[in-house]
Amino acid sequence: MTFDSPARKPAPGPGKTFRVKSFGCQMNVYDGERMAEMLEAGGYAAAAEGVDADLVVLNTCHIREKAAEKVYSDIGRLKREDGSRPTIAVAGCVAQAEGAEIARRAPSVDVVVGPQAYHRLPDLIARAERGERAIDLDMPLDSKFGALPKRAGGQRPTAFLTVQEGCDKFCTYCVVPYTRGAETSRPFADLIAEARALVAGGVREITLLGQNVNAWDGEDERGRAIGLDGLIRELAKEDGLERIRYTTSHPNDMTDGLIAAHGEVDKLMPFLHLPVQAGSDRILAAMNRSHSVESYLRVIERVRAVRPDIAISGDFIVGFPGESEADFEETLAIVRATQYAMAYSFKYSRRPGTPAATMDGQVEEAVMNDRLQRLQALLNEQQQAFNERTVGRATRLLLERRGKHDGQLIGKSPWLQSVHVTAPGLMIGDMVEVRITSAGPNSLGAEPLMEEVA
Ligand code: 5AD
Ligand code: SF4
Questions:
Q1: Is residue 167 annotated as involved in ligand binding?
Q2: How many angstroms separate the alpha carbon of residue 165 from the centre of ligand 2?
Q3: In angstroms, rounded to a whole number, what is the distance separating the alpha carbons of residues 324 and 336?
């Protein structure tokens, strides 16, 4: 679908600069990187920090209202002092959910492209150059991944790798099944090839991504049906790849094999992001989560039995329609029972087109604020306590970026904590053996035990 756009300015072509701004989940970060790689392959250069770009891609998030509204203010801010503006492409889930609405509300947008069609971005930009407004919200059956340039690894030692997309769970509050489409798994061979390319380019840690990553399934090279645990076991054989993580998981897809992998695969890091959303079976049923409090706790118990030090993370929604004070207290109870290392918590946000948006019993803002504050106070306490429990431990860090102070680097612990360490000669990408010496709510301090360990 294309629209003629009224006021035009020259659109960029090869030799011009671009900026991709990604919002929301890690899948968007991954998509943003793939779009950047594609633009670079087409002759664009990433705009330097602080310099206006000729093309700006806003890779948007639709999960909550605030995230979606942000797009419009960001578009407004792209106008330059002299009144000109870059070529603007809106990608991601807001594009998918509100395509035509964006065209109406923001006439300065040149390209609107959904998350399953962004491999066509260069073509859409070319159409914009010809003065069209190009909108592509297709969910083509052939995967976009085959059409993207091959990966080469980057400057960083860590990378995301999307293995699964979309969701068939249809939780009643969630837009993902509508914006990202049906659950699909990328083929095993493609994933091994992409992982090898990343490792050859210097990547030492890969995080496997999917809206329901543990629903991934495929066939290995001998044609045997495998699940995410099989993929993890194969990836663990790759020399040079030191660490494997995965996110986000659904409690119902925590298979026996995946749980066992946490006890058996050394390269699989002791961290599990397992959203429960609420602690009341009544609310979980209204959310269509299709698991209970008890089944969730049972999964946690089984994972801890094979990997006692595992860090558990989660997502919570407070104020889902019909949530009473007693329901909410059950959420506090499941948090106490689980003991999280970290977690994300949100006020319920009414998303148009989802079943919960029209349910009775919408909860007042003031009540949601109060519940969120109480929940976050408890989660923060648990996060601090988890961090303190790691003080004194010897562990390994993968150094990811520079810290504020001279010679200081920040790395991740196996439990995904940010840890500061200062020592001469350390470099980004090194694995260092350290002892954790201090713990704050969001980061820890450590001292090195020895030089780089192989
Ligand atoms: N309102 C609030 N939070 C939501 N999430 C998803 N949809 C909504 C919504 N409508 C949260 C869930 C999910 C995380 C990615 O975002 O907790 O796990
Ligand atoms: Fe949304 Fe539920 Fe699917 Fe997660 S499992 S993406 S919350 S519908």
A1: yes
A2: 11
A3: 19
- Please name every residue paired with 22 in a beta bridge, in sequence order, or none if there are none: 59
Residue 107, annotated as binding a ligand: no
Strand partners, 315: 344
Amino acid in the structure at residue 427: M
pTM: 0.91
SS3 category, 451: coil
64 lines ligand 1 (CB under 6 A): yes
348 lines ligand 1 (CB under 6 A): yes
Element (H, E) at 70: helix 65-77
In ligand 1, the atom with minimum distance to the C-alpha of 277 is 17
pLDDT value at 281 more than 60: yes
Q: Which residues contact 306 (CB under 8 A, 6 or more apart)?
A: 259, 260, 262, 263, 264
Confidence of residue 152 (pLDDT cuts 50, 70, 90): confident
Residue-level pLDDT at 153: 67
Q: Is the CB of 195 under 6 A from ligand 1?
A: no
Residue for token digits 């150059």? 129
What would the pLDDT profile of 289-328 be if each residue is shown by its tens digit?
Answer: 999 999 999 999 999 999 999 999 999 999 999 999 999 9
CB atoms within 10 A of CB 150: 9
List beta partners, residue 420: 410, 445
CA of 171 to the centre of ligand 2 (A): 5
**Max CA distance (Å), the chain:** 64
